[in-house]
Amino acid sequence: MGRAFEFRKERKFKRWAKMAVQFTRIGKEIVMAVKDGGANPDANSRLRTAIQNAKAVNMPKHTVDAAIKRASNKDERGYEEHVYEGYALHGVAILIETATDNTNRTVANVRSYFSKTGGSLGKTGSLDFIFNRKSIFRFVPGEKDMEELEFELIDAGLEELYLESDEDGSDIAVVQTAFEDFGKMQKALEDLGFEMKSAKLERIALSTTEITEEQAVDVIKLIDKLEEDDDVQAVYHNMQE
Predict the structure, then answer these.
(1) Which among 231, 197, 233 is positioned nearest to 54, based on CA atoms?
(2) What are the pLDDT digits (tens) for 110-167?
(3) If you average pLDDT over residues 186-193, what whole number do you get?
């Protein structure tokens, strides 16, 4: 299969083992959601989404409740969201979403990761022509007919609907909509009663960069360093898989 394949496989196992990292990131999202729209999930769609994502990774309810309570304290500091963009080795575009209580620390760390792996950090907005922000929903379709579901979701802004396999081999439905249709689609899926696996705003690469397996290893080293940082919420790239 090649060294790059083994490298990616090892990386997946490492990522699965880092459940605490997922909890930290979702915990930050909960705090930001509460600071932004209050502690009532019924009236705060961002918080409702964060709670759904917490359930999807088996985050304990008491941990979710503690994060909401902590964020409700006016003395509790919130997090600032920043996006960083640059290029890894071999011309692969990298976009990083962060949530931090210390911007100077975060930008210094991100810059050092690029520097140590031969990449370069660019200006914000420099990759707008490569990445497009989309609303992505994953849920258990059950026995629902996909053609019927597609028809029902058109008015909510449906752009794409397809199936992918979960880790246990079961079918997961994936819905893609425009960035601005997130709330409308979220409500439509909730009204249909689906069991949500995740609901996120993701960056979709409009074009990809083809590189060799050996070159991919260089890029993955940078991605790993970024994903291990506590301030990093998500990392996107346009490397062709």
Answers:
(1) 197
(2) 999 999 999 999 988 889 899 999 999 999 998 999 999 999 999 999 999 999 988 7
(3) 92
Question: Model confidence over 41-62: pLDDT tens digits?
Answer: 989 989 999 998 998 888 999 9
CA distance 47 to 185: 16
Distance CA 240, CA 237 (A): 9
pTM of the predicted structure, to 2 decimals: 0.84
Q: How far is CA 167 from CA 62, 150, 164, 240, in A?
A: 26, 24, 10, 22
CA of 24: how far to CAs of 9, 102, 137, in Å? Answer: 23, 16, 21
In the block, residue with structure tokens 């919130």? 78
CA distances from 78 to 27, 35, 162 (A): 11, 7, 36
Q: How far apart are CA 3 and CA 94, in angstroms?
A: 22
> In the numeric block, which tokens belong to residue 191?
């009204």
The β-bridge partners of 174 are: 138, 162
Strands 195-205 and 232-237: unpaired
Look up residue 218 and give its amino acid. D
